[in-house]
Amino acid sequence: MRLSHILAGAVAALAFAAPALAQETVAIVGGRVLTGTSVIEGGMVVIRDGKIVSVGTAAAPAGARVIDATGKVVAPGFVAVDSGLAGTEVGAVGGTNELRNSANTLSAAFDISYGLDPWSFTLPVARLGGITRAVVVPQHPGSSGGHVHEDETAGAGDGGYQTPGLFAGQAAVIDLGQDANILVKPRVAMVAPFGEAGADIAGGARGAQFVLFKETMAEVRLYARNKSAYERAGLRDLSLSRADLEALIPVADGTLPLIVSVHRASDIQQVLRLAREEGIKLILDGAEEGWLVAGEIASAGVPVLLNPISNLPADFEMRAARMENAAALNAAGVVIAIKGNEGSTHRAREARYNAGNAVSHGLPYGAAIAALTVNPARIFGMGGQFGQIAPGAAADVVVWSGDPLEPLSQPSAVFIDGVEQPLTSRALLLRDRYRQQTPMPPAYRN
Questions:
Q1: Which residues make Cβ contacts (< 8 Å) with residue 5, sequence separation at least 6?
Q2: 121 contacts 8 by C-beta, under 8 angstroms
Q3: Contact at 8 Å (CB) between 195 and 142?
Q4: Residue 159: pLDDT above 90?
Q5: What is the pLDDT of residue 203?
């Protein structure tokens, strides 16, 4: 049987498996409920019309479909941050990768939401790891994983406008529900590399990038004040395209957060200084040496997206990387969100393993759960909408066989917006297809 037939069969099976209707009332009873901010033993979660109606210890409402979670754990769906979910199938195959952009006339305006694929094979695999939402970000030379090269990412190229560009583009929030409408909110943050990656883009030195960034913000503000003059060609030449200038206005006025990939403690300090000088709203991504300046990050009120198992000095930016980074940042009062591995795409489900490792190195258990659920929603301005089990929040709920931070625990039910999702993936379908099959398909008989 040809590979194309196998892929078509897998897609069809995943696309047409019928989930439960969102309109029904579901009561999940008897489990240990992790709300994202507290724990309820023997709790009950009621779901109706895509929302969480109530959570507590009362009896199930009449007429509800009851799911017995006795001996199990009920948790909010996890949120993958700094992720490539639905944006790529194989990072090294350009035709399947919508996360990177090499047009030097379009960098900051690159809107990743238009390239998202609801039928991506990566989504069911991530769902089986308890992930129900994701913050999808463009790739750039400082990205956390995957096959990323300077000549394949935003702003690279010769001639035209500012080249290479300082910005990778705009992130989007998606849900992982099995339907065609996964986009929750586009343009939730701008993305830019700093540190070594940013220095390379600017010409080789960190100081050059900071000066270029400040000049870019000045141009954006000049454009914002003089749009009519720009329209009639009455404004001096600017180094960015009109689309990029427009995209950067909310960054310059402090309403759209800037996700900054940065690792070294001294670079973190300089980025915090830049944010103060320019009035920029920051989200740090990486911050492997963040524990050295945890107090400064906390005082600035800047959240951090991190991988707590990044503990090797892979280069001179991470000389002080250590497994206690998450615990130290949390103890200082920094709001953290825990990432998966290698770009949080094919290994997004490993975020819960990373959280468990952080707990074993000093992060309180409740803080680890929050770093997978409620914190990401708050960081991206969507607190209360998802990432927690609370009345009014989206009914993204996972019933686990045991502790969700224990690798052997598996979901027995996954709800996204109140719709129960199938517990399958292309990998499982292929496993079942070829496990102990008799007779084998014709192409395999010879």
A1: none
A2: no
A3: yes
A4: no
A5: 86
pLDDT tens per residue across span 253-274: 999 999 999 999 999 999 999 9
Q: Smallest Cα–Cα separation from 191: which of 139, 238, 228, 127?
A: 139
d(CA 215, CA 187): 23
| H-state helical runs in 253-283 | 265-278
The pair of structure tokens assigned to 229 is 């003059």
Question: In this predicted structure, what is the pLDDT of residue 103?
Answer: 75
* CATH superfamily placement of domain 78-384: Metal-dependent hydrolases (3.20.20.140)
For residues 124 and 132, is the Cβ–Cβ distance under 8 A?
Answer: no
Per the rule left: phi > 0, alpha: psi between -120 and 50, beta: everything else, 400 is beta
d(CA 220, CA 251): 9
Asked if 100 and 148 touch (Cβ cutoff 8 Å), the reply is yes
Q: Following DSSP, what letter does each residue of 127-159 receive, concatenated?
A: HTTTEEEEEE----TT-SSSS--GGGSTT-SSS
Report which DSSP code applies to 77: P
Six token digits for residue 141: 């030379």
Quote the pTM value.
0.89
Burial of 178 (0-12, 13-18, 19+ CB in 10 A): buried
Q: Is pLDDT larger for residue 141 or for residue 71?
A: 71
In sequence order, the β-bridge partners of residue 24 are: none
CA distance 92 to 279: 37
Distance of CA 194 to the CA centre of its chain: 19
Q: Do residues 128 and 423 touch, judged by C-beta distance below 8 A?
A: yes
Environment class of 78 (CB within 10 Å of its CB; exposed 0-12, middle 13-18, buried 19+): buried
Q: For the purposes of burial, counting CB atoms within 10 Å of the CB of 59, is it exposed (0-12), middle (13-18) or buried (19 or more)?
A: exposed
Q: Which amino acid is at 420?
A: E
What's the burial of 312, exposed, middle or buried (CB within 10 Å: 0-12/13-18/19+)? Answer: exposed
Q: How far is CA 108 from CA 100, 143, 174, in A?
A: 12, 16, 20
Residue 145 has pLDDT above 80, yes or no: no
The Cα 250–Cα 158 span in angstroms is 27
> How far apart, in Å, are the Cα atoms of 175 and each of 120, 183, 264, 268, 378?
12, 7, 32, 31, 16
**Contact between residue 277 and residue 304 where contact means Cβ atoms under 8 Å apart:** no
